Amino acid sequence: MSGLTPAIKKPRVNAERLATALRLWIAAGPGLFWIILFLLIPSAMLLAIAFLTNSDFGSPVLPLSLGSFSEVAGYGILGWSGANFVTLARSLVQTGAATSMTILLAYPLVFFIITRPANLRPVLLLFAILPSWTNQVVRTYAWMQLLNPEAPLSHIAQKLGIIPEHLGLMPGDFAVLIGLTYNYLPYMVVPLYAAAEKLDWTLVEAGRDLYASGTKLFFNTVFPQTLPGLLSGIILVGIPAFGDYVVPQLLGGDRAMMLGSLIAGQFTFSPNWPYGAALTLIMLAFTCLGLVTFRRLTQRMGAGEGAML
Amino acid sequence: MSNIPRGVRNGLLGVSLPVYLLLYAPLAIIAVFSFAPSLHHPGLNVAAYGLLANDPQVLAAIRRSLVLALCSAALGTMLGTLMGFGLSRFRPAKGGGFWVGTLPSLIIYLPIIMPSLVFGISEMIFFNYVHQYTGLLSAGLLTMGIAHVTFQAPYVALVVYARLAGLDANLFEASHDLYANGLKSFLYLTIPVVRPALIGGFLLAITLSIDDFTISFFTAGPGSVTLPIYIYGEIARKGSSPEINAIGTLMIATVIGVALLYYVVTRQQGRIGQTSAA
Amino acid sequence: MTGIAQGPQPQAGPNRGSISLQGVTRIFAGTIPAVDGIDLEIKAGEFFTLLGPSGCGKTTLLRMIAGFEVPDAGRILISGREMQDVPAHKRAVNTVFQSYALFPHLNVQQNIGFGLRMQGVKAPERKTRVDAIMELLQIGPFATRNAAQLSGGQRQRVALARALVNEPEVVLLDEPLSALDAKLRNELQIELLRMQKRLGMTFIFVTHDQHEALVMSDRIGVMSKGRVQQVGPVLDVYEKPRNVFVAEFLGLSNIWPINPGGGAQVDTPIGPLQITASVGAERMAMIRPEKIWMWPTRPERPNVFAGQVSEAIYMGASTQYRVALTDAPAAPPILVLDTNNVAAERSWQAGEMVFVELKPDNVMMIEG
Predict the structure, then answer these.
(1) Which one, of C278, C238, C237, C242, lies nearest residue C260 by Cα?
(2) Which residues of A touch C28 (CB under 8 A)?
(3) What is the residue-level pLDDT of chain B in tens, covering all 278 positions?
């Protein structure tokens, strides 16, 4: 055994980091580049189009302009119109209402599931989310069958005087709300269930002596523990509900127009890409605002990431 | 939790049963209408299914949907598995900075978090320009497939990642310790242990593909009418018909079948996965 | 062994199983060295224990020997061969992990046979060897069970069998018993030792449990802050610790700072102490509590101090006393451990007056 000649001297920390990063990008690279090429770049293009000018054929051309944004704000060739603001407001209200509905339905459902025997719970959860795995068009179509003017539900509502004769429960805001709630309920159930499953029941036991009523007990011991799940649920329901296209299209009709239909229209029937792109930008801005707000809230509560990655 | 008062438990049951009813009633209605086309002419029949079986448009749409789902799911599973594998194996516990931590996560979450309308329109514009300038990628099953892979891969990655992250990190070192080089370790350890997640991810990718309408709608071409697009068109044209009810029923049945299969597979996975705890 | 088509080439000769660490250093990103210039020679066929508190670098050192980590500086020689460019899967070294790391998709015998399979050993021979090791470790009855269906002790045996079946030159054990309850632990300690003596492989055992280290090892290396504080046979390290850290980590002790008084006497906070050890660079005096005598009357010998029992804790086989010294009220009470065996003359109650005797031979000079 020879002398103590150190085989390596330089710190290899950076080289090691580089090697790991390289391995990561080699393994995950094809998928990541796929998403970059087929989604990140396309969505950047869409946003860029918002700053171009509309041509006669609905396709965007130079020069750069903010014209599409003034159109978003309601200024058109016919003067100012508040229609877009009404649509935006309706989208926000419907999103809020649908999210609240899913919360109201998901809480009892989730607590029903977790108070059943452990071997039954996965099955009950599965049955709660199974409908969401069928096609959205089919799901929404199903509600068209239930709510249309000739359906028994509409007849009952007419008899009760909730809606006028010869009108149905659809199309309209009510039908959209039902459709959104139905479509996105599982997105609230799953994160709530994940949070409720980890619930520390000893806190409830401890709280039993402190709080007189069941409601107080619930809001002081159980509710705070499910808050991280609730916040993820709000994000998971709110974002797609806000941008939904199928539900307002099939159940809403013209009087219940939401942002999604408005945007889609600019890319289909009466093309105006820059205007549509500007509307999309507004939609994404609200989406990001919601996302950031709720992430902040989650982090402030020390609830951690909650996410898998 | 057995200490929850009986009254509360009954109350939960009382609220939850109607919710379950609400979840399945619309689907059941479609199924019933597919067999009993009219309230005015009682009696069950399978006439609607007979119409379907002889409608070349429907058969072609079914065929396209299946081809699209299977092909995109295969590629999506491959890409997703590699992403899940890479992220769980080659990322330090603390996250590892922008290039190794933040950026890959952002990219993977992008398709999941982006509203499908924006997703679909972005792809439509992209494919439109690519076609305009290169002549490649004209709107059709291929562009739909590309879009589907884009949203399937992240979900598969999450499934595979969850599986690998739940394993004892020492397992991989143990395999090297026991004379397996990188390739052998991948073949004899990684692949077998993620196999349930792989199958689960593949089935999930199929359901995602069949479930999607919005993204398909914007990336489809005139010759690539898949089942959801066909149904949407029929609804827009006729409102409702026994035929649509029949297609809807078939789709519901298929998805429930695949979902149950997925459930069985992931349950199996859960059972094998519990060994790593020290 | 015949049939090894791939994998490490077996070393022959007296070197087989020896380990030489020369200036081995490992620095994790932006931190102080986890392992700091360690020189260590481990003999072939030895049961060597790396003992130290968590975070002392012992596991990192073990991982470098296994090949999971690469040293930032220094050399590792196994059986006399340089290991710098030898990856983990080519080292004739097998590890028993703290978490056992049994493969979840394989049953017990497949787990044990994994290493042989990766080396290309043919199925019939693989079966013979796997059966033999399962017999030796008494795990035959659950050969076809899945790892999830095993108890902690059974998993431990499977993990050990999975390492031993390859007949490695060195077996590395990373706190393999820490997850087990006390009784099972004692059983497996004995069994591990028996197995090691029987197979004659070098065992490197990592633990933070000083008792475990004392029971099992031929030699131990006490580690702290990435450095080896002392290496030697168990008896030496316990009886003649080199410094305060080793003395305290390996058991109870009384330690005082000293002023060399010249010759055979040093000054301490409890008074002058006669010693037989020579004073070099050491600045502390140490005596183990079980090396202190307690007398009802003053014996006419050196190093006897009068005091009062301030605390008596009965611990079954022994009793632990604290004795406050009358002449040095400022010094902390002396810790004394007295056995309660049949030869024990008497025990003491708190409050009793006693004389404690620190025989000069038993007072050790240690570094700070």
Answers:
(1) C278
(2) 13
(3) 446 677 777 888 888 888 898 889 888 888 888 887 665 555 667 777 888 888 888 899 999 999 999 999 999 999 999 999 888 888 766 656 777 778 888 899 889 888 889 999 999 999 988 988 887 888 788 999 999 999 999 999 988 888 888 888 889 999 999 999 888 998 899 889 888 888 888 988 988 898 889 999 999 988 889 999 999 998 888 877 888 888 888 888 887 887 778 777 766 655 544 433 32
User: Which CATH number does the domain housing residue A135 bear?
Assistant: 1.10.3720.10
Q: What is the DSSP string of A118-157?
A: TTTHHHHHHHHHGGGGS-HHHHHHHHHHHHSTTSHHHHHH
Q: Which residues of A touch C84 (CB under 8 A)?
A: 7-8
Q: What gap in Å lies between CA B275 and CA C213, rounded to an integer?
A: 29
Q: What is the CATH number of domain C19-239?
A: 3.40.50.300
The whole-angstrom separation of Cα B264 and Cα B166 is 19
CATH number of the domain located at residue range(s) C264-366 in this protein: 2.40.50.100
Test A6 with C39 for CB contact under 8 angstroms: no
Q: What does the domain layout of chain C look like in residue ranges?
A: 19-239, 264-366
DSSP run (H or E) holding A298: helix A273-300
| ipTM exceeding 0.90, yes/no | no
Tally of residues, chain C: 368
pLDDT, one tens digit per residue, over C232-263 is: 999 999 999 999 999 999 989 999 998 876 67
pTM: 0.78
* Neighboring chains of A (3 or more beta-carbon pairs < 8 A): B, C
Residue B154 contacts residue B112 (beta carbons within 8 Å): yes
Name the nearest CA neighbour of A268 among C348, C195, B219, C286.
B219
pLDDT > 90? residue A207: no
Question: Topology of B55-277 in CATH?
Answer: MetI-like fold (1.10.3720)
Q: Check CB contact under 8 Å for A144 and B235.
A: yes
**Which residues lie closer than 8 Å to B149 by C-beta, 6 or more apart?**
A34, A38, B72, B75, B76, B79
Question: Average pLDDT over chain B, rounded to whole?
Answer: 83
